[in-house]
Design brief:
Blueprint lengths: L2 H40 L4 H42 L1
Helix pairs in contact: 1-2
Length: 89
């Protein structure tokens, strides 16, 4: 196994991780920003007001993208399994 092959595998793994995490985190960040602007505009400093919408949006994102997330992880895993002979041999 060459160092270039290892770097390519690592790069692809990082790309898959970043893509999957972004699908979960970005909606929560957007909602958190909207709630923060609303809180700043109205001077409401309630902690649950900032936490609950982010939690609900994150859970909703997991429910909506769950199938895609699992499929992406399975495809990456199967690709890694198919690469085992070329990596070992």
């Amino acid at each position: 196994m060459t160092p270039e092959a290892l770097i390519d595998i690592f790069r692809e793994a990082l790309a898959v991780i970043v893509m999957m995490v972004a699908v979960i985190i970005v909606p929560g960040l957007v909602v958190g920003l909207i709630v923060a602007v609303f809180q700043a505009a109205t001077s409401i400093n309630e902690q649950t007001l900032s936490f609950l919408p982010r939690l609900l949006v994150t859970l909703l994102a997991l429910m909506m993208a769950g199938h895609w997330l699992v499929r992406t992880m399975m495809d990456f895993f199967l690709e890694m399994v198919h690469l085992i002979p070329s990596v070992v041999g």
